[in-house]
């Protein structure tokens, strides 16, 4: 059978999370952060707190923020960089007087900012939640090609917002926007006049809520802390509630093997042994999902040609397998049996293949027409829904998932992914 998965909520509520209402005067103590990019303080008062709506890192390990009346100091410890963001119209802080902790570099710029150049897809999904996708001015062609955001696809189809491959034109495009969100590895020679923040730490922060809380980091240059903190609170509270519910479940824990295979690009002598690897993944956040769903994870390990039998022996007792191998296409049972070289005659040796249907799943349940996977996009933020997906495929009888429609995980034997297109976006750009 086929199943249609629910598209991520952020795809359809781009306009629902509207910007904060703007004060009509600059006089007195603000009660809200001002997030209009053109807003400028005209009657600066050093005793006024211009950031009454604040965030604090309760989960993320790789960024922090410290507030002062007219500026905020943001530290990205993953990229080893500091940002001083001051309210536009207030005095620019003097770096030498701030006594900042030493980092690789410091950038200072006024906020709130508006138009954006974004070099990665992942931040754009967070920005969509913040209501900032309409402020996107430039992104690489690959972003539009593989995006699973319907509205981002629509922007790519209807607007000339592609970041050029020509170095000179690209520089001009970036300079024409207020802020450049970029991976540090893609930014070796920054323009000292450019306002930028690094985004590498989002998927490196060690935990499912650690990663999701980066929405608050991305909100800081736009003064959208309240939108970010309110939305993240929903994700966090849902996640913790689901985790608490599953912690009370008794009985045997289903065993899960989260696996991948493909070419081995490791260093010699591994690569010299064989050009292929079989792996039970060890990513901490994936094991966190399995632990919080009250599952038993098959121990991680990496296996090459000379010991691949150990891989097969390790997964034989798994009740369920999640395959995350890269594949340009739609995975099904034939793909799985062929890729892992398991014959129908040998299937009886594997517990997950004795199930009806076979208990083999992949996280590509929402894709675009070019097979871009939403697992690498909105799943980074919506940890609560990822947890429900995993509970449903491993413990489908639990009451907590009876009304849940999966977004990412689908069964190779009986289900097909939801293919999202620009037609799913109802926002006008």
From TrEMBL:
Keywords: Signal
Domain of life: Eukaryota
Signal peptide extent: 1-21
PANTHER family xref list: F12P19.7, OS03G0120000 PROTEIN
Protein name as it appears in the record: Uncharacterized protein
Biological source species: Sphaeroforma arctica JP610
Lineage: Eukaryota, Ichthyosporea, Ichthyophonida, Sphaeroforma
């Amino acid at each position: 059978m086929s199943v249609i998965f629910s598209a991520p909520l952020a795809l359809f509520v781009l306009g629902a999370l509207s910007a904060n209402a703007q004060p009509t005067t600059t006089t007195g103590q603000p009660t809200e952060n001002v997030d209009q990019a053109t807003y400028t303080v005209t009657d600066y008062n050093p005793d006024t707190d211009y950031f009454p709506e604040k965030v604090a890192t309760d989960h993320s390990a790789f960024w922090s923020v410290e507030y002062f009346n007219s500026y905020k100091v943001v530290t990205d410890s993953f990229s080893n960089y500091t940002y001083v963001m001051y309210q536009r119209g207030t005095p620019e802080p003097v770096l030498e007087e701030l006594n900042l902790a030493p980092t690789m570099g410091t950038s200072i710029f006024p906020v709130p900012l508006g138009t954006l150049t974004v070099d990665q897809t992942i931040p754009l999904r967070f920005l969509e939640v913040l209501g900032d996708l309409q402020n996107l001015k430039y992104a690489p062609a690959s972003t539009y090609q593989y995006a699973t955001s319907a509205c981002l696809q629509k922007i790519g189809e209807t607007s000339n917002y592609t970041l050029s491959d020509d170095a000179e034109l690209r520089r001009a495009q970036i300079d024409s926007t207020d802020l450049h969100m970029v991976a540090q590895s893609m930014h070796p020679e920054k323009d000292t006049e450019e306002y930028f923040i690094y985004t590498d730490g989002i998927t490196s922060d060690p935990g499912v809520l650690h990663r999701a809380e980066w929405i608050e980091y991305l909100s800081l240059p736009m003064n959208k802390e309240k939108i970010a903190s309110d939305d993240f609170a929903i994700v966090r509270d849902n996640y913790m509630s689901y985790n608490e519910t599953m912690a009370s479940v008794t009985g045997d824990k289903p065993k899960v093997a989260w696996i991948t295979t493909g070419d081995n690009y490791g260093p010699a002598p591994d690569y010299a042994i064989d050009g292929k690897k079989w792996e039970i993944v060890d990513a901490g956040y994936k094991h966190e999902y399995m632990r919080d769903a009250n599952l038993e994870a098959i121990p991680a390990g990496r296996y090459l040609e000379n010991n691949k039998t150990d891989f097969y022996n390790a997964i034989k007792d798994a009740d369920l397998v999640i395959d995350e191998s890269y594949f340009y296409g739609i995975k099904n049972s034939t793909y799985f049996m062929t890729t892992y070289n398991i014959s129908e005659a040998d299937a009886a040796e594997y517990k997950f293949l004795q199930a009806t249907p076979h208990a083999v799943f992949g996280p590509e349940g929402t894709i675009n027409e070019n097979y871009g996977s939403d697992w690498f996009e909105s799943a980074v933020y919506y940890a609560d829904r990822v947890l429900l997906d995993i509970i449903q495929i491993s413990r489908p009888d639990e009451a907590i998932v009876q009304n849940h429609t999966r977004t990412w995980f689908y069964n190779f034997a009986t289900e097909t992914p939801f293919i999202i297109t620009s037609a799913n976006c109802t926002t006008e750009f």
